[in-house]
Amino acid sequence: MLKILIPTDLGRGSRAGMRFAIQWARQQKARLIFFHAAYIPRPTRWSEKKYEAYRIEELNLRQRRLHQMAASALTRADAHDQAYDCIIVEGISPEVTLQDYCRKHRDIDFICMSTGGAAGLHRFWGTHAGNMITQATTPVIVVPKGYRTIPVRRLLYATDLNHYQEELEKIVPLVHHLQAELHILHLVGPDEMLPDKDLFEKVIRQEFHVETQIHLEIMDETRSVAANLHKFIQKMKPSLVVMFTDRRRTLFEKIFYPSKAESFAFRTHTPLMAFSKH
């Protein structure tokens, strides 16, 4: 069974990630893991006994809040029979604690988090969501704070066409499980030869046994790569955008690293799935 981990700081900002994960579990059988990284500092004047009593009390309080939050999200989504767990792990850094948990639990398939799911998350890179995308080995789904639940019916895979075969090996199973359409977007640069669209679609259909639509969009040189992508997303309205995070890959670097990600993440209501290449 698929396992989706949903980090939360127990605030309202993380609800978007919960809504998306619950919707995913409607379409593909999955177990949801609501996860909270707890840092409970110790006042220097407190005795060990006093601090330990406070720590236990605080952990119990957060455990109850996590269960209440998960139950409330599932009730609002009318997903009363959804299988789930609530996990609290102590750690100073939320992203380090989360990554360590995923390394120890290799059966976690995806991390699904909201861009508004951590205190002070006003920028993207250098924050929890941005750090998770660049550092985590587990695929990360980043859901914009204002996301409203819709079925995942249209996946947009944005690619520079380098290593697309090994990347499609990861994407196509998702397409089949979700019974979704697969669209492949390639932004064509000014000095680039235009691929044969019909031949490309035929090759993918024969090799991966999936129907797809190839979109070869000529870049508007007066706009950034991120702006070109955003324009296409607005026109097509996919349910999910899928990319790969190897910084050596020019497409990802141009769109997301280091300063474009905040603009992209907050200008669109479309969730982003990032697969790690390292």
Care to describe what's here?
With 278 residues, this protein is an alpha/beta fold. The protein folds into two domains: 2-143, 3-Layer(aba) Sandwich (Rossmann fold), CATH 3.40.50.620; 154-275, 3-Layer(aba) Sandwich (Rossmann fold). The chain contains nine helices and ten strands. A ten-stranded mixed beta sheet has the order 3-2-1-4-5-10-9-6-7-8, sandwiched between helices. Helix 7 crosses helix 8 (250-256). The protein is elongated. Residues 117-126 and 257-263 have low confidence and may be disordered.
A few lines on this structure:
With 278 residues, the chain is an alpha/beta fold. Helices cover 41% and strands 22% of the residues. The chain folds into two domains: 2-143, Rossmann fold (3-Layer(aba) Sandwich), CATH 3.40.50.620; 154-275, HUPs (Rossmann fold, 3-Layer(aba) Sandwich).
